Amino acid sequence: MTIVIHSARLVDEGQVTQDAWVAFAEGIVSARGTGPVWREIAPAEIVDAAGALLSPGLIDIHGHGGGGAAYDDGLDAIRTARAVHLAHGTTRAVLSLVTASVDDLAARVAGIADLAERDATILGSHLEGPFLDAAHKGAHTESLLRAPDAASVDRLIEAGRGTVRHVTLAPELPGGLAAVAQFVAGGVAVAVGHTNATRDQAAAAFAAGATLLTHAFNAMPGIHHRAPGPILAAMQDPRVTLELIADGIHVHPDVIALAFAGASGRIALITDAMAAAGAPEGHYLLGGLAVTVRDGTARLDADGAIAGSTLTQDAALRLSVECGIALPDAFAAATGVPARALGLDDRHGSLRVGAVADAVLWDDGLRVRDVWVDGIRHVG
Q1: Active-site residue (options: 12, 237, 272, 370)
Q2: Is 252 helix (H, G, I), strand (E, B) or coil?
């Protein structure tokens, strides 16, 4: 069945196109253009956008759950959490796993690999740990943190069967740079994060093949005028994408604007959402650690550290625009930029002809009206 969405303001690939239309057929974008030409297609279903904003589906490369469920907890939990984020425009996602034993992580990435074979909206897994700096552990169990070793890295790569999309590690740990090279050789993107790395250590990791900075500004040294740290190392390297939790809690709105200015075209809006996203406030567990969510902020009971977020990507978009980020740049940060950061093919993160037919129609307040995945309407 062919579907045409017409009379839209299409925001895609860095620009806004007025009076645009997009046609979906057999799960892909079959045609697009402007004006009334769409009438020649004779579609089976017609959607009049009436001037509303139309974008590619959002892609979250770092999130841990939602709807009261965590991605660490198996198939049913994954389905519950993904449904929450789909309703907020995230059509495809990488499932992030918190620190656990290598045995447990291997089992979890193997399960996600099985799921990804049946559900193409699951892009794979993200290992946030266990190769993290204890002093910047955030909401990770300190007793499970460790330096990387070749055998453990191999085991995790093999367990994922090509679906471990990226891994966060602290490159200053013993064996850290070797692990960067080993993961990259295994087809895994490496993110510097939960780290005490200096600027030079971070730059060495990027030279070794790391291409991401995990939730920039959080769980790492800040920018100091005599010690610029990993953030500036990432901003200065055009190969590196900076993840950003744009919720106004993890990162101040002025710093959100600074990040977009300092790494133009290389900001990926992530949620880092834990189970409480889209769920009532109260008490939760994150990787076995007790968390209390109050006033939209998740904090560890033990020490008050921020423990993930309750963010959805549509909210991150709205705040970014409120911070003065141009609409095309904000949307790119939730679509094309994360797709490129993980080396996804050009069928993702855009509504170009031949791309997967994932799309979101937005109201004037940048709230989700309709969502399509593979050309099938799921929300609206």
Answers
A1: 272
A2: coil
- pLDDT of residue 379 exceeding 80, the answer is no
**pLDDT for 312-338, tens place per residue?**
999 999 999 999 999 999 999 999 999
Q: What is the 3-state secondary structure (H, E, C) of 289-348?
A: EEEEEECCEEEECCCCCECCECCCHHHHHHHHHHCCCCHHHHHHCCCHHHHHHCCCCCCC
Distance CA 3, CA 139 (A): 44
DSSP one-letter string for 227-240: B-HHHHHHHH-TT-
pTM of this structure = 0.97
Known catalytic residue at 272: yes
Please give the residue range of the domain that contains residue 333: 58-341
Report residue 176 CA to chain centroid gap. 23
DSSP β-ladder status, 28-34 and 122-128 = unpaired
Stretch among 39-43, 196-200, 227-231, 264-268 having the lowest mean pLDDT:
39-43
Q: Do 330 and 260 belong together in one domain? A: yes
User: What CATH number is attached to the domain comprising 23?
Assistant: 2.30.40.10
